[in-house]
């Protein structure tokens, strides 16, 4: 073949030769296309992909998206506790645990639950406190739950092996969800160090309507903290223990339940408790 002035001058034999080569190339590409679109005959076994196969790197494995990651809610709800042979219970929380709003403290939800369960129980309720909120109008009371757990552990005469942490209402005063979540995790972990083997359950914040609607962020943060620490979470907010319909009959002062409201809380808690201890 001779190149002159940018054109091509071919002999007849050369045209025939290159034409035959072109036809062979077309046929080869056709076979490759069929192989790619129909890699195996019906009924033919599938060969496992190898690391060197281009298909192996281009096609995601079936397990990549088969199982979505569990949410904090699902994780917390799936957890259960193993009751010791002789449960000794500590219920620690805020003014709800203290029984505020009930006609008598003994009619508070925590006291009703303790009576129903029948375990040796200490009840530690202190108004205005939380996992991260230490009490006082400026969060200056230094009465966070972890501090109070350490105080309880200082008494060797009472050693709980089951702990219920109730609260989050006052933590709603904190603007950082991460701070609430971190404090919840630290409180649970502190309890486990203080009493090795203790079974911890978290009861999230609740309140009659319309105050309940202000607790969504704190509830999510406490729930996430419980899930991160591997503790079961009883979600009174998301499951609607207090609704627009029942709140008028259960409300004491807009922030606390009355005697009937405490009885309602105890009933709902015991229903959840039964599912956690089955």
UniProtKB/TrEMBL annotation:
Matches recorded under CDD domains: SGNH_hydrolase
Q: Where is the composition biased (Low complexity)?
A: 56-71
Q: Where is the SGNH hydrolase-type esterase domain?
A: 91-263
Which residue ranges does UniProt annotate as crossing the membrane?
A: 15-36
Source organism superkingdom: Bacteria
User: Keyword set for this entry?
Assistant: Hydrolase, Membrane, Transmembrane, Transmembrane helix
The ranges of region (Disordered) come to 43-71
What Pfam families does the record tag this protein with? Lipase_GDSL_2
Molecular function as annotated in GO: hydrolase activity
- Note the PANTHER family from the entry: THIOESTERASE 1/PROTEASE 1/LYSOPHOSPHOLIPASE L1 (PTHR30383)
Official protein name in the record = SGNH/GDSL hydrolase family protein
């Amino acid at each position: 073949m001779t190149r002159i002035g940018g054109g091509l001058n071919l002999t007849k034999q050369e045209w025939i030769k290159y034409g035959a080569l072109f036809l062979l190339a077309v046929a080869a590409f056709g076979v490759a296309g069929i192989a790619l679109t129909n890699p195996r005959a019906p009924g033919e076994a599938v060969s496992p992909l190898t690391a060197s196969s281009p298909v192996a790197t281009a096609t995601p494995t079936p397990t990549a998206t088969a199982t979505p990651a569990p949410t904090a809610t699902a994780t917390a709800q799936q957890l259960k506790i193993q009751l010791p042979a002789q449960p000794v219970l500590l219920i620690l929380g805020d003014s709800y645990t203290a029984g505020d709003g009930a006609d008598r403290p003994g009619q508070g939800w925590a006291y009703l639950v303790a009576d129903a369960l029948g375990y040796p129980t200490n009840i530690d309720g202190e108004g205005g406190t939380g996992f991260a909120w230490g009490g006082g109008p400026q969060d200056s009371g230094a009465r966070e739950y972890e501090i109070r757990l350490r105080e309880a552990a200082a008494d060797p005469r009472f050693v709980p092996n089951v702990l219920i942490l109730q609260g989050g209402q006052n933590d709603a005063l904190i603007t950082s969800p991460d701070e609430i979540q971190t404090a919840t995790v630290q409180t649970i972990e502190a309890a486990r160090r203080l009493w090795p083997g203790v079974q911890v359950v978290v009861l999230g914040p609740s309140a009659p309507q319309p105050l309940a609607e202000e607790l969504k962020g704190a509830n999510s943060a406490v729930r996430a903290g419980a899930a991160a620490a591997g503790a079961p979470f009883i979600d009174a907010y998301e499951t609607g223990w207090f609704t627009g319909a029942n709140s008028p009959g259960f409300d004491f002062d807009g922030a606390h339940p009355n005697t009937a409201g405490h009885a309602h809380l105890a009933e709902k808690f015991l229903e959840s408790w039964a599912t956690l201890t089955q």
